[in-house]
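## Example pair
The file below holds two records. Each record gives the amino-acid sequence first, followed by its structure token line.
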Amino acid sequence: GSSCEKCDFETDLCKSLQELNLHPGWKRRNGRSGMGPPYSDHTGNESAYFLSLSSETQSSSATLRTNIFLPTDEHHICQITFHYWISQMSGMLMVGLQKHSEDTITNIWQVSGELQNQWKSNTITINSTEKYKV
């Protein structure tokens, strides 16, 4: 069966993201917050919430971590689809994988320098024989 979980930030952080690891740079806001674009979420809804990096953190990085996911196999594949918006030429968005037995984070996807000023979406498929975080 499908165990898809939608993560929309409408009430708070979604269940799959660790509450304690919301880096100070991230803010939960919507298009009406007065913080500049985007002025709506990817569906065009002005009052829908999303996470945004505040402009004070331009020069630094901020991380969001998921809770622990179980290993994948032919019956349990993991696909994560997310929507993103990059509004700085210097901005970079990376997705990393940290396996249970490793301290290091392996970069599995990244996008940078695309000053598109529009919502884009991406889906990544994750294979891991052990528990992992993203």
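Second record, same layout:
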Amino acid sequence: MTIHNLYIFDRGGTCLHYSEWHRRRGTGIPREEEFKLMFGMLFSLRSFVAKMSPTDMRDGFVSFLTSKYRLHYYETPTGLRLVLNTDPGVTSAREALQHIYSHLFVELVVKNPLCPPRQPVQSDLFRSRLDAFIRGLPYFNPRPT
């Protein structure tokens, strides 16, 4: 099992952070266009799930699975959206996304007076701690080729 990439979006759709680890194939489009497409897809999926649910869903949309990857989704009460793409075998990365938000993003970005709000993250400390955390997850290892 492995982790491919991570997106962090603000409530307006601006990509505040992007990292990739074991992504084997690019999209063939500019990065900014990829961010817009990803955010649009998340917006649509979230809306679709909310409308189609037969009951009032507390968590709403948390992931979806394809034959090649699983997309894990976590939205904070403030509208920050974290997206982690992994191999299909990773059943849940919710705790990891919650940890990234509460222990890394809040502590190293939100509480940092040198990081302007609603701007792409420029903190090297955040990037290095995020990378160390992701590499320490049990499902980080690259899949055999």
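Notes on the second record: Residues 96 and 137 are 8 Å apart (CA to CA). The first helix runs from residue 31 to 52.
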